[in-house]
Amino acid sequence: MTHRHDDHSDHGHGMAEDLPRLNAQLGRRRALQWFAGAGTAALVAGCGGGSGSSSSSTTSSAAATTTTTTATPTPTATPTPTATATPTPTATTTGCVADPSETAGPYPGDGTNTASGSTSNVLTSSGIVRSDIRKSFITSTTDAGGVLVTLTLTVVNVNATCAPLAGYAVYLWHADRQGHYSLYTAAAESYLRGVQVTDANGQVTFTTYFPPAYDGRWPHFHFEVFSSLSNALSGRYAILTSQMCMPAAICNTVFANTSLYPTAASIFSRLSLSTDNVFGDNTAAQIAQQTPTFSGSVAAGYTAAAVIGIAR
Predict the structure, then answer these.
(1) Are 195 and 170 in contact (CB under 8 A)?
(2) From the first residue on, what is the mean pLDDT of each consecutive set of 10 residues in the chain (312 residues)?
(3) pTM of the model
(4) Cα-Cα-Cα-Cα dihedral of 74, 77, 79, 80, to 10°?
(5) How far apart, in whole angstroms, are the C-alpha atoms of residue 208 and residue 219?
(6) How many distinct helices (H) and strands (E) make up the chain?
(7) Taking the CB of residue 309, how many other CB atoms lie within 10 A of it?
(8) Beta strands in the chain (DSSP E)
(9) Least CB-packed of 15, 52, 187, 237 within 10 Å?
């Protein structure tokens, strides 16, 4: 616009004067065209820079995405072993409870009561430390008979994430297949009683027979735990006296053999674990721990296992 105004104001001079002006005007126009071209180029360059910035941003985003994608599997993979490993200590920690104290009953043979006017303390007898308790060992070698059970007990400290307690003594006893107890109702016998000391895994193993049902009582094992063998053999130093209840399904299977267990099936049919005078008031968790797991058969014998929880 300014250039046109200047053209109007200079109109009417001769060619000689107009030529230099025209050349100057053309020069200015070329300059303007150059600047316009430069501006366009700058604008294009600016857009290109924007595109480059956008491209760079996209690349960064892609890189970030790639990094995120790459990083995500790493933590995902890491929790997997952690999650796998975590249940193990948790299961161990929550896998035991303190066994409740139960009555030793009238036939413990641990020096706490009398039988036939004399104190019965089998714990002070030579030979009481034994794994196979099927036979008498004091004045006879009578075999009690019954369905074979190999019982492994694991003694653990419930206050230390169920850590095994080594060097503890366990005294196990129970009735014979007719419901009699050695030293008492089978006074001449000393079978189905024995003491074992826990190994590094807190375990002891007894070879014995399946206990019967008798009037008023669900089939059970009695046991006492001592902090050492010397305390066990001294008698009256038990840190826990309790009992284990037999699984109902195994009871029904075993007691079906009436030649070995002549009265157990009929008695057992009238019993209930929930109304038993020992187990009836225990919690579900206590009953679960007090019930050994069994595998095997009547013909081949059973393998059983249970945990004994001690609060130390």
Answers:
(1) yes
(2) 40 43 44 39 35 36 38 41 34 71 96 79 96 97 98 98 98 98 95 98 98 97 97 91 98 97 98 96 96 98 98 93
(3) 0.70
(4) 180
(5) 14
(6) 9, 11
(7) 25
(8) 110-115, 118-121, 148-157, 163-164, 169-173, 193-197, 203-209, 220-226, 240-245, 293-297, 301-310
(9) 15
